[in-house]
Amino acid sequence: MVIAVWAGVLLAAVWLAHWGAEHLSDPLRKLRQQWGFSVAAGGAFVGLAAASPEIGINTTSALRGVGDIGLGALLGSNVLAIPMMVVTAYLATRKSGIGENGRHDDHEEHRRAHLLQVDRQAVTVQALPYLGIIALFALLTLPAPWRGLQPIDGWILLLGYLAYLVQALLRGRKEGEEVDWKRKEKWKAVAGVGALAAGAYFTVFSTEKIVSAIGISKIIGGLFITAPVAALPEVFATWYVARSGQVTSGVTSVIGDHAVTMTLAFIPLTIVGMPIENLQLFWVTLAFVALMPTLYAAFIWWGGRDSGFRRWQVAALPAVYALFVAVLVLWVQPFGQGAQESAGASGRQAQEGTE
């Protein structure tokens, strides 16, 4: 009964996030045009809004003393989201007419060639700086002398994100265009951001309750339940932005989101302090976190005259995620370890009760 109630809350929260994402695509396009930002940098706008689930996860996890959920959710979402968003954008752009009034340059040619066309600038503006953020995160958390997350790490991650954001917005910037804003459109944009954030938060909160009711370990709940559900608002945002003709912004928003999740979203855990208890699970997951944007960048950069993702490359990314799951199950075996940890905790509680 408890699971059914929270499942209903989960569905309502996902719908709310869906509504919010739907009202962000046009304001995103107008802001980018008004301020003269490149289409690749436009992904930073969507990414910042779409990262609200991960920020909510870690804030809630830190306040409730369940940091493993936040840690697992953030790392798990960063492995899953790139294949999920690329597949979403590919499916969204299989429609015969996209963009304003169904017009988009060369779209029919790309559709016939089974190509998800993405501006090559997305590699230098988004993917490579994001890989730098991952390297910074690994440097702060993996070496034995300072393993885990401490308050000083939060300040360093904040500086890392600001450096990423500034370079993304300023590179390739041109003179802005005159844009007509309607009052109703502004209010809808504000409501969309609020709905996306609120829907994302309750998505996370209800998923946490479901994880607790099922009785699985927190880290596994974060990796395989909270992370996929928290990615749903970004799926909606990517779908609508890509359908509106802003294909590069829709696809690169996943990198903008990840830049937030690997920096700002970890700050709540740095404030309370977060040790790394399962080092093998942590470094294996972090390795796949880095592998996904590496493949993302390689596929775009070496895509030929029309850069982007071919159909086989779109399919290859989910296959890599399946490999990640197989490695965890067959080698790291976190499910068994989680059960052992749970049994050990129960034993300690029983012993304390006896004493």
TrEMBL record:
UniProt cross-references to Gene3D superfamilies, sorted A to Z: NCX, central ion-binding region
A GO BP annotation: transmembrane transport
Transmembrane segments: 6-24, 69-93, 127-146, 152-170, 190-207, 219-242, 254-276, 282-302, 314-332
Membrane topology value: Multi-pass membrane protein
Cell compartments where the protein resides: Membrane
Domain of life: Bacteria
Xref: InterPro entries: NaCa_Exmemb (IPR004837), NCX_ion-bd_dom_sf (IPR044880)
Keyword Transport attributed: no
Key words of the record: Membrane, Transmembrane, Transmembrane helix
Location, primary (coarse class): membrane
GO cellular component terms, semicolon-separated: membrane
Sodium/calcium exchanger membrane region domain ranges (all copies): 7-167, 191-329
Record-given protein name: Sodium:calcium exchanger
Entry keyword Transmembrane: yes
